[in-house]
């Protein structure tokens, strides 16, 4: 490796002229680089370390650039909405837990400091470290991707800073015996288990056999853990796995995958995909003229509002697990009221991911207030004593209460289906707002 | 497994392979002419896709109809990139050249995300949509048209390089810049031309796949690794080599993924690359 200056000799231009030109270029590049960094990290020039006494800094780590950036931006908007409600910058609907604010901290305000993990576990850990050591945050939240939450929460554990995770569903996260890790969302074991119960219920309802299934999951931590669990549950509950595929999410074609599933002809596909691959797989199903009786999506890409927007009617009848659906507003008026606020601020409806991000901040603020202090130990203790009733949440949960592992034991899931361009609740049958469309209509029969 | 399925898989592999070829020919052309590896090539593809998207969204111009415009636009982008960035690092150490195009990659991605948001977008209906079936084999019309377009563009590029004065001058510059300059060929113009054509190829590929692939700022990264594999496999700088290698990579990827397991499809392609490099380091059609 040589360490020579970039341009060793001016070629045809005169020396002076070349020098000024080089300077101009250098300045332009520097400006461009600065612009890029700003745009990429989503941290403006205002992130100076000076902070007021009455400001409680919370670190929020999301994928703000990279393949999942569109999801990250929504999560960020939801977290900001929650913070604005806690800080009483906008009036809260009565009954909402976040609306209580921070009376025990003498009206202090929370300030969210964002970190961008770009979908990369190493970057996530570095961002956690930066937020703790140089931004001096009192607690961390994030990070959507389970594998990033895993590394970022390790850093928090090492520094003894509470980490509240609102939207990562990998079951192993709360099996690590961490002291500082709390999770509000139910995890994959519950969601994946629900699908098998749902299939049993559908068999009773339709009289069809739905025991021949294909597992189609992306191959990071999340997809692998889901697969393991699905295999275990299939064995226990006497389902046959016709095909099992773990595919790389960043791909240019999914023909080989879909072709293999088509050849195996399963009655049901259980699929875990992020947004880009969810879209590409649907396109490929259509291209190869194939659909199972039911496509059971494991949230994530299929539940991104972009999925419905870009797929249009080709996204119809996909069934997904959810923690949240807008039609549940019929049962809980808070959902509609908070959703209206989100729509005003960010121009989009809540979805399962952003609603959980919102709830994460709300639960953290509740603990901060009860702690009445910004000391990590006090916050941790308050989190352990959390007991929020269902009526204070915008989630269809029974409430928030953490068990010894830090897992919220009152979380529940629902199953939804795309009907008429939006997700409607179809299971459990007693909270369903619409019946299941079954089987999925063939591509040419729509 | 029946012959039908095998045939279907081969057809799918061929179609995607031709797209890979088109993405790679632009890359190999730039490398062949001036020995610079363009890491921002995937971003040219991305710009091509966005050009088609905006032509559709704002002016209701179909991506297929917009292809000439997309090509012209990306040609201009290629020339501008050459004039503003590349020309200044021609004699710089290789590391500087790598970082210059790498930086350009990050800049273009960042700008795309800044101006057009990180959303995934699709062109919902184009002139070419729906499926074509030949007996038991079926494939998407967009994929088929894209593959045809890739053949057409690569063919036209080959004709240009081998049957026109300007193309021959470009080839001459690629072979020996000093000698070409002595023959009265303006090296700077040839370099700018190579960047223009290279970017236009990526732009055309973008326009063609925009009819069926989601469009987002990072989309280039999905294709760029494969494009590099194709360039190396075909032989650095060889357009015909890149064309053949593209088809081979597409076939191996889809067929290997289908037979062995999709989780190994990239590994299979990269193993093939390693074997070829061991046996024939200069690639299929590269010059020694």
TrEMBL record, chain B:
Compartment(s) where it occurs, according to its Swiss-Prot or TrEMBL record: Cell membrane
One matching Pfam family: BPD_transp_2
Membrane topology of the entry: Multi-pass membrane protein
TM annotation in the entry: 6-32, 44-61, 67-86, 98-116, 136-161, 192-213, 219-236, 267-285
Superkingdom per UniProt: Bacteria
UniProt keywords, alphabetically: Amino-acid transport, Cell membrane, Membrane, Transmembrane, Transmembrane helix, Transport
Main location, first listed in the record: membrane
Coiled-coil annotated spans: none
CDD domains: TM_PBP1_LivH_like (cd06582)
InterPro entries found in the cross-reference section: ABC_transp_permease (IPR001851), BCAA_transport_permease (IPR052157)
Family stated for the protein in its record: Belongs to the binding-protein-dependent transport system permease family. LivHM subfamily.
Protein name, UniProt field: Branched-chain amino acid ABC transporter permease
């Amino acid at each position: 490796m040589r360490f020579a200056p970039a341009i060793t000799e001016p070629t045809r231009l005169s020396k002076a002229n070349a020098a000024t030109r080089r300077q101009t270029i250098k300045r332009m590049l520097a400006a461009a680089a600065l612009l890029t960094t700003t745009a990429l990290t989503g941290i403006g020039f205002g992130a100076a370390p000076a902070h007021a006494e009455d400001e409680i800094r919370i670190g929020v780590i999301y994928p703000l650039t990279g393949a999942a950036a569109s999801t990250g931006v929504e999560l960020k908007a939801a977290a900001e909405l929650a913070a604005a409600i806690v800080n009483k910058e906008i009036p809260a609907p009565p009954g909402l837990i976040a609306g209580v604010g921070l009376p025990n901290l003498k009206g202090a305000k929370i300030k969210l400091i964002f970190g961008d993990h770009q979908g990369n576990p190493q970057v996530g850990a570095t961002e956690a470290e930066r937020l703790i050591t140089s931004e001096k945050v009192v607690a961390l939240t994030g990070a959507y991707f389970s594998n990033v939450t895993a590394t970022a929460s390790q850093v928090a554990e090492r520094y003894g800073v509470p980490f509240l995770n609102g939207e990562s569903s990998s079951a192993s996260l709360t099996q690590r015996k961490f002291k500082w890790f709390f999770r509000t969302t139910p995890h994959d074991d519950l969601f994946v288990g629900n699908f098998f119960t749902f299939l049993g219920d559908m068999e009773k309802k339709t009289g069809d056999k739905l025991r021949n299934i294909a597992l189609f999951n992306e191959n990071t931590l999340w997809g692998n853990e889901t697969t393991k669990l699905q295999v275990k549950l299939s064995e226990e509950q006497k389902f046959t796995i016709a095909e099992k595929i773990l595919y790389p999410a960043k791909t240019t074609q999914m023909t080989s995958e879909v072709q293999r599933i088509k050849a195996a002809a399963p009655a049901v596909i259980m699929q875990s995909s992020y947004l880009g691959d969810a879209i590409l797989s649907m396109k490929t199903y259509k291209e190869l003229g194939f659909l199972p009786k039911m496509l059971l999506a494991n949230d994530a890409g299929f539940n991104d509002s972009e999925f419905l927007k870009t797929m249009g009617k080709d996204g119809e009848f996909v069934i997904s697990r959810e923690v949240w659906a807008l039609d549940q507003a019929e049962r809980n008026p808070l959902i509609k009221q908070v959703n209206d606020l989100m729509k005003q601020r960010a121009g989009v409806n809540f979805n399962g991911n952003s609603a959980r991000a919102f709830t994460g901040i709300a639960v953290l603020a509740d603990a901060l207030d009860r702690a009445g202090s910004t000391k990590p130990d006090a916050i941790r203790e308050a989190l352990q004593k959390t007991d929020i009733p269902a009526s204070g949440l915008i989630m269809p949960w029974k409430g928030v209460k953490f068990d010894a592992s830090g897992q919220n034991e009152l979380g529940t899931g629902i199953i939804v289906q795309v009907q008429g361009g939006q997700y409607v609740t179809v299971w459990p049958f007693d909270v369903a707002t619409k019946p299941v469309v079954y089987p999925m209509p063939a591509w040419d029969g729509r | 497994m029946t012959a039908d399925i095998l045939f279907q898989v081969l057809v799918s592999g061929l179609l995607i392979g031709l797209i890979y070829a088109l993405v790679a020919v632009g890359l190999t052309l730039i490398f062949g002419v001036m020995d610079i590896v363009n890491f921002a090539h995937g971003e040219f593809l991305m710009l091509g896709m966005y050009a088609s998207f905006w032509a559709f969204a704002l002016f209701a111009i179909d991506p297929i109809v917009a292809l000439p415009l997309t090509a012209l636009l990306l040609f201009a982008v290629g020339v501008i990139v050459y004039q503003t960035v590349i020309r200044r690092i021609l004699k710089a150490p290789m590391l500087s050249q790598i970082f210059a195009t790498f930086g350009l990659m990050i800049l273009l991605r960042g700008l795309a995300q800044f101006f057009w948001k990180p959303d995934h977008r699709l062109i919902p209906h184009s002139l070419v949509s729906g499926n074509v079936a030949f007996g038991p084999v079926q494939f998407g019309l967009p994929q088929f048209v894209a593959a045809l377009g890739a053949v057409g563009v690569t063919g036209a590029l080959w004709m240009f390089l081998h049957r026109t004065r300007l193309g021959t001058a470009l080839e001459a510059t690629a072979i020996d810049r000093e000698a070409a300059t002595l023959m009265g060929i303006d090296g700077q113009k040839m370099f700018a031309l190579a960047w223009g054509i290279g970017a236009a190829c990526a732009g055309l590929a973008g326009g063609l796949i925009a009819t069926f692939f989601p469009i987002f700022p990072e989309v280039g990264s999905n294709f760029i690794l494969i494009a590099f594999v194709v360039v190396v496999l075909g032989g650095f700088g060889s357009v015909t080599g890149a064309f053949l290698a593209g088809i081979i990579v597409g076939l191996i990827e889809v067929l290997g993924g289908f037979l062995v397991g999709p989780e190994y499809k990239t590994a299979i392609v990269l193993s093939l690359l390693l074997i070829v490099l061991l046996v024939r380091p200069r690639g299929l059609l590269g010059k020694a």
